[in-house]
Amino acid sequence: MPETSTLESRTEPATATAFAEMVRTASEPDPVPAVHPFRLKALPGGLIRNARPRQWVKNVLVLAAPGAAGMLTHAAVLRQVGIVFVLFCAAASAIYFLNDAMDVEADRAHPTKRHRPIASGVVPLPVAYLCAALLAGGAITGALLLCNTPTAIALGCYLVMQFLYCTGLKHILVVDLAFVTSGFLIRAMIGGLASGIQLSQWFLITTGFAALFMVAAKRYSELVSMGDKAANSRKLLAQYSDSYLRFVWQASAAVTVLSYCLWSSDHTVGADVALRQISVLPFVFAILRYAIFADRGAAEAPENVALKDRPLLMLGAIWAGLYGFSVLGTA
């Protein structure tokens, strides 16, 4: 009996303390609730945020084909490129609305994506789907009225491919990489299509593999940064290995460098071959600089890497200057 009393006296305070802790923890609200109550005043801001204006920097790629051909000094080409930029921003935002609406549950399990307007309840699902339809329809209509048929077809292909990606193909190994890469490649092509510029084979190869390099580096960074929780946000990451994704971004980086070297040596594509060949140096070092972020698993947001890393910006400016003068032949 004395031993039993001693045991009870030792366990009761511990049990009471544990019970009190459980009650306190259960009574405390989640400091960052996953879903907020809908408020009409917050809707306009939520719509703008979900359109992701920061991501529109990717659409600057519509300048790529006219820039590679040295046609950006033509007023008519600049006008067409400006129109295409706006249309592509609308099309891309349509996909953002659709993707976030379809991935709402997965986003709520992600530590940062749970704050997106749709996942957090700021933008209701019906409104998100309506915005996606209006933006996509407006982009196609604008391409037909303000540009030409090839531009409308390219934009339509982008929307169809991204729709298929959102509705299931993003869960298929490698296919997801191909579809995201194709979105960047269409961006790079569409400015040339709208301006009636013939696209070089080297331009298509270089931009295509450069896009694959960035997409694979992004997936690798997502897998590395989230670890075991990566599949909660993107189910396909559970099927990829970090070694495979590392192989993909390293191989695509190598092909990008090789294709650009061959492009720079093509005597049929520019006015000043020497400057074009010199531009290989900043181009290669820019790839190597970006690879540092990929290797660290810090390339999850490519636009942040491209816009915030000063050495990378400097290399990009040097490359653009050399390539631009080589195309214009004004050096």
Structure notes:
By secondary structure, this protein is mainly alpha-helical. It contains 15 helices and no strands. Helix 4 packs parallel to helix 7 (149-166), helix 7 (149-166) runs antiparallel to helix 8 (175-195) and helix 13 (280-295) packs antiparallel against helix 15 (310-328). The chain starts with a helix and ends with a helix. The model is unreliable at 1-33 (pLDDT under 50).
Annotate the secondary structure layout.
Layout: H1 2-27, H2 43-51, H3 64-68, H4 75-102, H5 104-108, H6 125-146, H7 149-166, H8 175-195, H9 201-226, H10 230-233, H11 242-264, H12 273-278, H13 280-295, H14 302-308, H15 310-328
Helix pairs in contact: 4-6, 4-7, 4-8, 6-7, 7-8, 8-9, 9-11, 9-13, 11-13, 13-15
State the gist of this model.
By secondary structure, the chain is mainly alpha-helical. The protein has helices at about 1-25, 45-50, 65-70, 75-100, 105-110, 125-145, 150-165, 175-195, 200-225, 230-235, 240-265, 275-280, 280-295, 300-310, 310-330.
Radius of gyration: 25 Å
Mass-distribution shape: globular
Instruction: Give the end-to-end Cα distance, rounded to a whole number of Å.
Output: 101 Å
Poorly predicted residue ranges: 1-33
Oligomer: single chain
SSE pattern: HHHHHHHHHHHHHHH
How much beta, percentage-wise? Answer: under 5%
The count of DSSP E runs of length 2 or more, i.e. the number of strands, is 0
Question: What is the mean predicted local confidence, pLDDT?
Answer: 84
